[in-house]
């Protein structure tokens, strides 16, 4: 892949930070990424910084670019794509001095919106520029599942089966977005998913267990996701500086699912019930079963698996905070 080098940084006042070396990683196949927006973003970042642009063309490509950027001492890598692209870039720069900036280009953009960014790349790049001007870069914690980092959540069981259904129809995702996920959720629930037998068990570091897991969300941030503009608030106390939150459905009865969904849409989170197990500030947890169960990470289906070990890793990544302007 050829690097496209930005224009030389313009001179700046003495009261501003020096020009940074930035790598802009673009997934041009993401739902809301366009060639025009990519040019606009590149030009805006290049006004005061030295910017290179690369485009991904297969899964895992963004991680390779990000790892190379970290080895070369690039100051900031900007991930422009969906949540899957973001995960790959975060994985590539985690543990290095290279910082991550997030630019929404997918259909949902959970992590970017959790940070308070607008769901539009042209507006969001202004937040990144502002944060870089203020040198607003600080370490955050990440989750890790079987050695792979995640930024906002992983899903086991039903949640992952829904993601799998959508990924099989990836060509439709760009055009139908959230309605496609609604169709996938209903089709998976009523037709494809076994709602009679538990799919896995969970064992926590303190020795406690959940034996009958049908659907678990392991969260590094809140909300869990968005339905249009409505956040699904599961555990509002979850943040980038706390441990993980783990929410497990112990039944798939429609009345329980709907009650939990309604509570999440109202805001304020969900609470433990006889059918729902809620844990906060979790540092380690293991999910396992003799039969393989579906598994997704940051919105990417990773296949069926028999065992997943989760842990919280503090100060794993340097993040450009991208706070909204006040």
Write up what this structure looks like.
The protein has 326 residues and is α+β, with helices and mostly antiparallel strands. It folds into 2 domains: 4-135, Probable inorganic polyphosphate/atp-NAD kinase, domain 1 (Rossmann fold); 150-313, Sandwich (Tumour Suppressor Smad4). Helices cover 30% and strands 34% of the residues. The chain has 8 helices and 17 strands. α1 (35-46) links the parallel β2 and β3 (50-55). It starts with a strand and ends in a 6-residue tail after the last strand.
* Radius of gyration over C-alpha positions, nearest whole angstrom: 20 Å
Shape: globular
Beta strand count:
17
Report mean pLDDT, rounded to a whole number.
Answer: 90
The poorly predicted ranges are 1-16
Distance between the termini: 39 Å
Helix count equals 8
Largest sheet: 15 strands, mixed
Q: What's the CATH architecture name of the largest domain?
A: Sandwich
CATH class of the largest domain: Mainly Beta
Structural class: alpha+beta
Proportion of residues in β-strands: 25-35%
- Into which percent range does the helicity of residues fall? 25-40%
CATH fold assignment of the largest domain: Tumour Suppressor Smad4
Secondary-structure element order, N to C:
EEHEHEHEHHEEEHHEEEEEEHEEE
Number of domains: 2
